[in-house]
Amino acid sequence: MGTRIAWTGVGDGEFFCPGCGGDRNYQRLTGRRRFTLLGVPVLPRGETGPVVECAACRHHYGTEVLDHPTTVRLSAMLRDAVHTVALAVLAAGGTRTRTSLSVAAGAVRSAGFDDCTEDQLDALVEALAADTGRLFGEPCGAAGLSIELHEALDPLAPHLAPAGREAILLQGARIALADGPYTPAERDVLSTVGAALTICADEITRLLAAARTPS
Known about the structure:
- It is a single chain.
- The chain is elongated.
- The model is unreliable at 132-141 (pLDDT under 50).
- By secondary structure, it is an alpha+beta fold.
- The chain has seven helices and four strands.
- Strands 1-2-3-4 form a four-stranded antiparallel β-sheet, with no helix packed on it.
- This is TerB family tellurite resistance protein.
- Residues 109-206 form the Co-chaperone DjlA N-terminal domain.
């Protein structure tokens, strides 16, 4: 005597497989348990699952594994986060210089926007200042910047290691420092960035101070 599970596919897609360590196709399965006698199913024993089966390694995982973004999705989230932080810091800085725009454009290109230019960033920040609605849906100001930053960073933070979260904050700090010391508005934006990345206040202060020290 034993138990056998008959699996039925109820959906599919792509996910990050923790067993394979990369993006893979999956099938979502539900199952029905049955008692078996000499290998023959005889009595139902209720339902089980659902589970996620990797199409490559065939291992089964709980459906919570689908909460982790794929590598492609995570890269897009990181790219958008760096772009949003760069724009927020530039907007908070008030007067923008070619130096700050150059540092910001370099960070955004490194994150994945290969064609990003200083002029494009400058135009986007001008659109924000004019409240044309091209970038931020909220009125220009601290509240609008805070909402936009949280929308970009809150979903990303749980999937980054501490070093990754610190790197995003430090990128923003370098943009702010490119044309001189932090302004109060830049500090406020960087504090919002750190909080959205779940970095504690003391650590934010330490990192912003460290960014001012030449390496």
